Amino acid sequence: MTAVLWLISSAWASIHADVVMSDRWLSGHRLTLSVRYKNTGKQPTTVPDLTNRPWLVVFETVDPKGIRRTVHSTAPTTDPGTTIRLQSGESRITSFEIPTSETWSPGTASVTVSIAGAPGSVHAVQLTEEGMATHRHTAQPVDQTAGTRSTVLSFWSEGGTDLFITNKQRLQYLGRATGTIKAQASIVRTEQRQNQWFTWTDANGGLWGVQPKPHSEHAAPRRLAFPWPSSYACGPAATASSGHLVVPVCIPSPAGTVTKTVAAVIASSGAMSFRTVAAYGPRQILTNVDSTGGVEFVLIRDNAIDWAWLGIDTAVDRPTSIRKVWRGPSIESATLVLTDNDRPSPAVRIQTGESDAPVVLRSPR
Question: 2-128, which class in CATH?
Answer without folding.
Answer: mainly beta
